[in-house]
């Protein structure tokens, strides 16, 4: 049996970038196929029951979907060059926060910069999106499918709070974040030390496919945050091939990391807390079955964000990610809980520990389900 894995995704896919970087960085042999590949359409989609990427198929035929679940699989089997889960409990908690923020908190700038600058981006996106189209389409069919796909993505952007009214603030806050992150990656090669962590892979979600590759935002990143752009390149290389790759500290560079955490508290915490309250009330009213997969969104919630009142889609998947931080905290001895609590209080993120739902979110068979009482 071959030891090669198969990654189904797309160059332009936000979540595929996280998985691809992990496979490359850790020297795991894989073949990448576009989501329009015949085997994906014929063999994988029927198993998933929905069109979604990324997907990894293991050498024994096991189908894995979701970037976090895929990395968890490789970590559990110790197939990477090293563990991406920090050994220190405080650093591990920080990694889970950046995993959440990178995949979910950066959706507003990712969607705004992709779909708000058609003159610069659209021709590039047409080529990239064709990777997900079935083979044999005529040029007119490809054009129609791109229009349908891009229209769906623009609506998704609106569900994350992207609009003409919020666009200037999205750009201002994103550039603030880039400046903070550039200062950090000038001081250290990776988020938490001299090796990439779960937090780095979470950031690759939002920062790579949309913001470092699409023509308009790529130029912004290269100009304003060259250390961030260089980090995206470093994340897409086998670990150790660059002579200074491991130059840095084995400890987090807190002087530049803590301002980033305070930014997350300012930019994303209110949304998480509003979604928590919305979902608590929704669960009280609906009492959903534990046997039926959760819909991607369960409704729209009013959020106060950076001086705007916006409506954003409430996605229980975010609470599955947040549970990782909360579970990590609760399994630690008291002395480490005290350390985690103190650090999150200092950076304004301590409320994340208490943002719990009355029911857990679980993943079974590559889908999210409501679980038992939390």
Structure overview:
The protein has helices at residues 14-25, 38-48, 67-76, 89-105, 107-115, 118-129, 139-159, 167-187, 198-207, 209-213, 215-224, 226-235, 254-267, 269-286, 316-330, 334-346, and strands spanning 5-9, 30-34, 55-57, 63-65, 300-305, 308-313, 359-364, 367-373. The radius of gyration is 20 Å and the shape is globular. It has 16 helices and 8 strands. It is of the alpha+beta class.
Percent helix range:
55-70%
Query: How big a fraction of the residues is strand?
Result: 5-15%
The arrangement of helices and strands along the chain is EHEHEEHHHHHHHHHHHHEEHHEE
Give the low-pLDDT segments.
none
How many distinct beta strands?
8
- How does the major sheet shape up? 4 strands, mixed
Mean pLDDT: 95
Structural class: alpha+beta
Spell out the key features of this protein.
374 residues, alpha+beta, four-stranded mixed sheet, two-stranded antiparallel sheet, 8 strands
Quick structural gist:
This protein is an alpha+beta fold and 374 residues long.
How is the topology of this model organized?
Layout: E1 5-9, H1 14-25, E2 30-34, H2 38-48, E3 55-57, E4 63-65, H3 67-76, H4 89-105, H5 107-115, H6 118-129, H7 139-159, H8 167-187, H9 198-207, H10 209-213, H11 215-224, H12 226-235, H13 254-267, H14 269-286, E5 300-305, E6 308-313, H15 316-330, H16 334-346, E7 359-364, E8 367-373
Parallel strand pairs: 1-2
Antiparallel strand pairs: 1-3, 3-4, 5-6, 7-8
Helix pairs in contact: 1-3, 1-9, 4-9, 4-15, 5-7, 5-8, 8-12, 8-13, 11-12
């Amino acid at each position: 049996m071959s030891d090669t894995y198969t990654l189904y995704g797309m160059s332009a896919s936000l979540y595929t970038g996280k998985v691809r970087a992990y496979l490359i960085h850790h020297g795991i042999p894989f073949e990448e196929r576009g989501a329009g590949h015949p085997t994906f359409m014929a063999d994988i989609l029927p198993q998933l029951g929905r069109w979604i990427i990324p997907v990894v198929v293991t050498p024994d035929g096991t189908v894995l979907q979701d970037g976090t679940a895929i990395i968890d699989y490789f970590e559990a089997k110790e197939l990477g060059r090293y563990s991406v889960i920090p050994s220190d409990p405080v650093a591990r908690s920080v990694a889970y926060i950046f995993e959440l923020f990178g995949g979910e908190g950066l959706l507003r700038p990712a969607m705004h910069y992709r779909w708000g600058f058609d003159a610069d981006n659209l021709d590039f996106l047409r080529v990239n999106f064709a990777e997900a189209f079935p083979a044999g389409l005529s040029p007119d069919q490809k054009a129609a499918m791109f229009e349908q796909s891009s229209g769906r993505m623009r609506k998704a952007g609106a569900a994350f709070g992207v609009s003409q009214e919020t666009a200037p603030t999205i750009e201002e806050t994103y550039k603030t974040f880039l400046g903070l992150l550039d200062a950090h990656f000038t001081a250290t090669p990776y988020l938490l030390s001299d090796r990439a962590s779960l937090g780095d892979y979470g950031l690759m979600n939002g920062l790579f496919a949309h913001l470092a590759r699409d023509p308009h935002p790529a130029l912004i990143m290269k100009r304003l945050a060259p250390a961030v752009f260089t980090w995206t390149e470093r994340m897409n290389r086998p670990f150790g091939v660059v002579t200074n790759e491991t130059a840095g500290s084995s400890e987090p560079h807190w002087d530049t990391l803590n301002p980033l955490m305070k930014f997350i508290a300012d930019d994303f915490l209110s949304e998480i807390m509003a979604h928590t309250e919305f979902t608590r009330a929704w669960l009280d009213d609906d009492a959903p079955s534990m046997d039926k997969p959760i819909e991607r969104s369960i409704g729209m919630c009013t959020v106060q964000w950076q001086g705007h009142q916006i409506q954003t889609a409430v996605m229980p998947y975010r609470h599955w990610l947040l549970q990782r931080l909360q579970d990590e905290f609760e399994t630690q001895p008291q002395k480490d809980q005290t350390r985690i609590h103190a650090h999150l209080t200092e950076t304004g993120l301590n409320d994340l520990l208490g943002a719990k739902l009355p029911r857990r979110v679980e993943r079974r068979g590559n889908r999210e389900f409501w679980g038992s009482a939390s």
